[in-house]
Amino acid sequence: MLKSTHRAAGPANSHEPALPPGWTEHKAPTGHSYYYNAETKQSTYTRPAAPSQTHFFIDHTATPTPHAQVHGPTACSFGPPQRSEYGGSFRGGLSYQDRSRRQYQQDRPKKKKAIPGCEPWILVTTKLGRRFVHNPEKNESFWKFPQDVLLATFEMDRKEQEEKLSVEGEGPRAVATAEPRPQLPPLQRNNEADQRAADDSDSYEDVEVTDDENVDLEQPDAIEGPTKKQRTGPVEFNEEDIAYQLAQMGQEYGLDPGEYGNGEDDEYDTGLPLSADDSRALFYDLLTDHAINPYTTWEKVLEQGHIIDDERYVALPNMRTRKEAFTIWSTERIQELKEQRAKEEKKDPRIPYLRFLHEHATPKLYWPEFKRKYRKEEAMKDAYLPDKEREKLYRDHINRLKLPESTRRTGLKDLMKSIPLQHLHRNSTQDTLPATMLTDLRYISLPSRTRDPLIEAYICTLPSPPLDPSAAGPATSDQSEADKKAEEREKREKALREREKMVQEEKRKVMGALRRGKEVMRDEEREIEEALRVSGREGLRAYLTEMEANAAEGQASS
Amino acid sequence: MPAIRSTGRNRKPPPAGFEDIEDTLLEFSNKMKDAQSAPHEGKKKHETLWPIIQISHQRSRYIYELYYTKSAISKALYEYLVKNNYADAALMAKWKKQGYEKLCCVKCIQTKETNFSSTCICRVPKATLERGEGEAAGGGDGEDATTAVAGGRGGGGGGGGKVIQCVNCGCRGCASAD
User: Chain B residues contacting A, CB < 8 Å?
Assistant: First the structure.
């Protein structure tokens, strides 16, 4: 933002008017150029303008309005008449820095776009982001849009904005707010202030600018609202800044917010709403997704800290609600788990024990020896299988192991035959054998290298499982339920994302306001400084008379 | 403090559902062990017990909530836990009563052994607690309530940010109204 005021002095000099007679340009050791008048022994950094030449810059002659006629000649007698790219500044006076920089800015068309609805007309955006309309057929251009073109442009802008997913309804508001914009009292310091006031007022005039005019660019402020954002000018002066400025001015003039605009209340009513239930559900999703154990404590969950990084964590506003949500979620989840477990068949504690026996039991060890040897094993410590039962199983198993292999083989075959077809069928594998088979001693009495081929051979002879008509029904309903849930969840997440975006927007706005405020303060300071410098002891009047004398002198000498 | 479970022959398995909460309980017992073996240098005499009482309170709370608010464990398991000293039955009995929902420890409502037959300072609701009142009512059991941080009586502005901690268990306030 703070560009040097002297930056443009080098290359832009060629466009500047010649110095008035008596003035010479010099380079300071710092690289700044300054001007010296040998007659009056004055030196200054600001380039003294030759009064006669400045008339060239403003050209209201195309369609001279009464306003321009009144202000034109007087306004242009001092300083460069090139307009600010943002009309009247938010503070009434333009900053001095802006003014001096503006002197060197050059604007030129950057991109053009056909306006749908008004065919020959083209909307041209300049380098500084200002816009005018051009009619290639009649070869004419206007800063002030003709009525029909204006409407079409609004329509186009609105569409663009919608495409950009911008939430503000800018088009209509800009119109509403631009009109009652208060006229600022000119700073009666010198004529430049007058000219600025003129700037403010005649931005709404019907000023036509002809094609060949490339220096004096007039800003059609009233219709610029929607495109402020796209500007690429040196000062980023966008739509929110205007809102701020309006509020500021309204305060200065003691206006109600309704008088200068319809406030900010209509800004956030768009987008998907994120209700309390939704945010709660989002939090549940978060807990489910992170596979939080519902039996843990909330403190433990926080300690682990996985969930904190997730953006859904902030769906709920504070810790208390989060804790409540966790309590509810864990209650529900535990119930779910209970139901699920009830549905599942109970795991028989004998299965791991028998598997262990199959691997380790030998007729060489008595039960007490065996127990002592493997007392550290998990299968031997299982509390759900009583010791007596374990001993009995061991003894029976050892007795069976002592039988001849053929007997054990027939025993296994008998076992397999006794199992109904819906449990053991062609699709069964070694891992999906029914529990009735796994808990039987006959299953483990053969070593696995003879047992496994036997079982596989038997399974191959079996037919496919009988079709179960009851299985199909609930499955589809489950499917649809799951779909519904997924859909709801997607909606919630979208809402969260949208809220996130809104928060970002809000943050940006606050930052913008802050920046703007700082700028205002800086400008004010600068203004005061300038005023102090100018009206030292002699006062403003002395300064003005001196200026006039200078001007007269310059004219006389030219 | 739960009893050490025997691995002997006559060991009865815990009721169903114990394996779900076993991990959390194990964490609590590990924390408890750490607190018990933590050095006591630089601590006041009454402060040494604070972390132990805190952990015991947390564990009791955990079991209480599992049973009464989440109904996640069966009655058999709850009784098993109480019997095996995983939870403080006397404290949980108080939590069921109105006005004692957040009670920190049973000693804090014991009025018999205090100087003014009053409860502990942590039982006083924060709203009724005035600045500087902490010293007057704190502890009340003969020990000086040095833990009540003096809030600078003469200081300006009613911040009300007086921090009190009771002598018995280091509680900062367990009134139901807080």
Answer: 7, 9, 11-14, 20-21, 23-24, 27, 58, 62, 65-66, 69-72
pLDDT of residue A260: 42
B19 interaction partners in chain A (CB closer than 8 Å): none
Instruction: Return the pLDDT at A153.
Output: 81
Cβ neighbours, 10 Å, residue A67: 16
Q: What are residue B41's DSSP bridge partners?
A: none
A interface with B, Cβ–Cβ < 8 A, is 293-297, 299-300, 327, 330-331, 334, 381, 383-384, 387
For chain B, the distance separating the N- and C-terminal CA atoms, rounded to the nearest angstrom, is 29
Q: CA–CA separation, A231 vs A127, rounded Å?
A: 8
Q: Which long-range contacts (CB under 8 A, 24 or more apart) does A310-313 make?
A: A310/A286, A311/A496, A311/A500, A312/A282, A312/A283, A312/A285, A312/A286, A312/A493, A312/A496, A313/A283, A313/A286
pLDDT at site B99: 93
C-alpha distance from B12 to closest chain A C-alpha (Å)? 7
* Facing B70 at nearest CB: one of A330, A384, A387: A330
Contact between B109 and B171 (Cβ < 8 Å): no
Q: Is the CB of residue B86 less than 8 Å from the CB of residue B63? A: yes
d(CA A517, CA A536): 28
Report chain A (558 residues): mean pLDDT per 10 consecutive residues: 43 59 82 83 80 44 40 38 41 44 60 78 79 82 80 81 57 41 42 43 40 41 41 48 58 46 41 74 88 90 86 86 92 91 81 90 91 87 84 92 91 89 82 84 88 89 73 67 89 87 93 95 91 67 78 75
Task: Report the complex ipTM.
Answer: 0.81
Q: Among residues B126, B64, B74, B50, which one has the least CA distance to residue B101?
A: B64
Q: How many CB pairs under 8 A join A and B?
A: 34
Interface test with A, best of B10, B20, B61 (most A CBs within 10 A): B20
Please state the rounded mean pLDDT for residues B129-149: 47
Retrieve residue B128's tokens: 């009724």
Among B70, B74, B84, B86, most A C-beta atoms within 10 A, so best to mutate, is: B70
Instruction: Using alpha carbons, list the distances in angstroms from residue A526 to A91, A101, A529.
Output: 12, 15, 5
| B178 or B138, which is more confident | B178
pLDDT number for residue A225:
41
Q: How confident is the model at residue B60 (pLDDT cuts 50, 70, 90)?
A: very high
